[in-house]
Amino acid sequence: MLFHVRMDVQLPPAMPAAQADELKKNERELAQGLQRSGKWRHLWRIAGQYANYSVFDVESVDELHTLLTSLPLFPYMKIEVSPMCRHPSSIRDTDT
Ligand SMILES: O=C(O)C[C@H]1C=CC(=O)O1
Predict the structure, then answer these.
(1) 12, 76 Cβ separation under 8 angstroms
(2) 20, 25, 51, 52: which could form a disulfide with 8 (CB 3.0–4.6 Å)?
(3) Which of 40, 41, 43 to mutate to test ligand 1, by most ligand atoms within 8 A of the CB atom?
(4) Is 89 part of a structural domain of the chain?
């Protein structure tokens, strides 16, 4: 199942820089592992914002929920999820 996800990150301004750096490092490691596994299919920065557009390829809504809530930055993100299905005019298969 494919999901388009927008994540907006809002770290508290008072968060110590070392804590923010540790969160971002842990987030990067998890995100890169999930990309290597194929579950986090796309990760794009939204230009000019501390936000991203992502595409996840998971087995279920429950798996997506578990994955998103396990992200180190989850407590500091506003997340919008859109389920996607095949467009009848698309010339691509879902594996690309
Ligand atoms: O920077 C972000 O957009 C938030 C988050 C998503 C992946 C990652 O490494 O950090």
Answers:
(1) yes
(2) 51
(3) 43
(4) no
Residue of 28, 42, 44 with the most ligand 1 atoms within 8 Å of its CB, for mutation? 28
Count of the separate structural domains present in the chain: 1
Range of the domain at 18: 2-84
Specify the pTM.
0.94
φ and ψ of 34, to 5 deg:
-70, -35
For 82, the token pair is 């859109």
Tens of pLDDT, residue by residue over 49-88, are 999 999 999 999 999 999 999 999 999 999 999 999 999 9
CATH code for the domain in which residue 22 is found: 3.30.70.1060
